[in-house]
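The following record pairs a protein chain with its ligand, NAP.
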Amino acid sequence: MSAGGDVEKVVIVGSGPAGWTAAIYSARANLDPLCLIGVPRTDPAPVLPGGQLMLTTEVENYPGFPEGITGPDMMQAFQKQAERFGSRVRGVDVTACEFGERPFKLTTSENDVVLAESVIIATGATANWLGLDNELRLATSGGGVSACAVCDGALPMFRDQPLAVVGGGDSAMEEASYLAKFASTVYVIHRRDSLRASQAMQDRVLSNDRIEMVWNSQVVDVHGEKMIETIELEDTQTQERRHLAVKGLFIAIGHTPATSFLEGSDIQLDDEGYVVVKGGSSHTNLEGVFAAGDVADPTYRQAITAAGMGCQAALDAERWLSEH
Ligand code: NAP
């Protein structure tokens, strides 16, 4: 159980840009936040405290870093800034939440219970991967495999090169259209012969001369030592295999918000598992429980938008605490 039954004013769950920004703001507001930053996991895909940026090589679109910064360096700087103002940090996961009465109860992976007057959920979302060994190896080593074209697509190594996007939904269409501005050719690899994406997004892709559809195909392996060289495709109807030379592979097969620990807590999630927040704020359906960043954002999913939402959540929590 919680040490001595102490009740925290604000507990922040998660340690990406949203979590650390919420910590910076609430620490500076003298709320003495406790940050539960998670524990590293590798199965089925790598997840680290610090979130998706820990798997990102260069971040070039976050304002204030004209030369760019690596994702891990950026998260280390966020943490340092949060700790400078007194944020306390514990490397534990939250495994269950009870929001029925205050103080709220958060059970940790060390089997103790943290008591809290307010909670900010900032656990993010993880990109879905195909689950191929070489895919994850090249994704984590900057080898030209990525789950975010908007984050990585503009890097010089992808300019005027053949690239591939996997998926048939709106994300894949958006990523393909974005990459077509830099690439020589963008192949969209889809496992069926019709797209899931909205008609408008489909039309944009299908009418783009630089985008080539590769229907009924699955990526079954990724080849290349340091950098991706070819992808191995299998025809989903004939099972025939072939290699396609590309300099970049962008996986756009959906995201999974990290909300399984909220099961049974009465917090409202949408059909895809994202936390529902009220009109432009960080308020959830439960008083005193706030959400920020990708866990509550199926649309933008950028470091800068997550940081902005973290700031909102800290301000919302501060106001709510002073009113209650
Ligand atoms: P999604 O709609 O779930 O589409 C995922 C795509 O990936 C599907 O085409 C699916 O194929 C494919 N896929 C899934 N697992 C796969 C696997 N293991 N191997 C190969 N292909 C696989 O996801 P999303 O595109 O990320 O979109 C999520 C939500 O955000 C949607 O509601 C979307 O409308 C919305 N969104 C909107 C915009 C926009 O309007 N600007 C932009 C992005 C996203 P199947 O089709 O065969 O299942």
